[in-house]
């Protein structure tokens, strides 16, 4: 089961996905709200924290989560304090009951990863794409529109017709025809420069 623990939080934060299963994990930890009680309502045993990218709104709660649950964090840039262990492009990781491929997708930020499980059709896309053809900002440090376009195209090619739902860093998850939203994002990123 995938739950967004940041749902209805009014503070500036990313979505925080708790995925229960063989490996109970968080995808991003959010910021500016106390996520610990929200995790504890569901489980007292967290196995891993996976970081899509290290913008403050996605990692602000990481230290508190690591301390409260004695858990390690994983992401692309192990030099970032929020990331304890590096995940390589193409590496396979266990989230919940499924194996996910880490897909390196820079453009919004240099350390951005998406996670995709071909078996379940689930993708965690961080701030690469959003519902209704939205895409990650490129006006922040490390932002690069051309790299973002290439990353969206790479994600589209990787997930193909197998993707059934995309959980994004902000706003609602995409659970109906996610290929359409990916195509819209790829088009919009090229047009809205």
From the structure above, extract its key features:
193 residues, alpha/beta, Metallo-beta-lactamase, Chain A, 6-stranded mixed β-sheet, 5-stranded mixed β-sheet, 24% helix, zinc, RibonucZ/Hydroxyglut_hydro
Q: Measure the end-to-end span.
A: 37 Å
CATH H level: which superfamily?
Ribonuclease Z/Hydroxyacylglutathione hydrolase-like
Helix content: 10-25%
Could you say what the CATH architecture is?
Answer: 4-Layer Sandwich
Oligomeric status: single chain
Profile the largest sheet: 6 strands, mixed
Query: How many individual helices?
Result: 5
Instruction: Give the DSSP E fraction (strand runs of 2 or more residues).
Output: 15-25%
Radius of gyration: 15 Å
Largest sheet strand order: 1-2-3-4-5-6
Coarse structural class = alpha/beta
Question: And the CATH topology?
Answer: Metallo-beta-lactamase, Chain A
Shape: globular
Number of domains: 1
Domain Metallo-beta-lactamase: 13-170
Keywords: Hydrolase, Metal-binding, Zinc
Pfam families: Lactamase_B (PF00753)
Protein name: Hydroxyacylglutathione hydrolase
Description of the molecule:
- The protein has a single domain (2-191), classed as 4-Layer Sandwich (Metallo-beta-lactamase, Chain A).
- The protein has 193 residues and is of the alpha/beta class.
- The chain contains 5 helices and 11 strands; from the N terminus they run βββαβααββββββαβα.
- It has helices spanning 36-40, 56-59, 62-69, 145-159, 178-191; strands at residues 2-4, 17-19, 25-27, 48-50, 73-75, 85-86, 92-95, 98-104, 113-117, 122-126, 165-168.
């Amino acid at each position: 089961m995938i739950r967004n623990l940041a749902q209805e939080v009014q503070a500036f934060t990313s979505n925080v996905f708790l995925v229960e299963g063989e490996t109970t994990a968080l995808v991003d930890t959010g910021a500016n709200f106390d996520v610990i009680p929200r995790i504890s309502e569901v489980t007292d045993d967290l196995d891993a924290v996976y970081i899509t990218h290290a913008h403050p709104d996605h990692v602000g709660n990481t230290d508190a989560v690591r301390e409260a649950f004695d858990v390690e964090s994983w992401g692309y840039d192990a030099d970032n304090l929020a990331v304890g262990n590096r995940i390589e492009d193409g590496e396979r990781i266990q989230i919940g009951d499924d194996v996910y491929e880490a897909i390196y997708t820079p453009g919004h930020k240099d350390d951005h990863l998406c996670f995709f499980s071909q078996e379940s059709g689930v993708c965690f896309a961080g701030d690469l794409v959003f519902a209704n053809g939205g895409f990650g900002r490129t006006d922040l440090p490390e932002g690069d529109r051309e790299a973002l376009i290439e990353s969206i195209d790479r994600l589209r090619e990787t997930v193909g017709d197998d993707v059934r739902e995309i959980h994004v860093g902000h706003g609602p998850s995409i659970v109906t025809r996610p290929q359409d939203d990916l195509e819209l994002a790829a088009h919009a990123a090229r047009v809205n420069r």
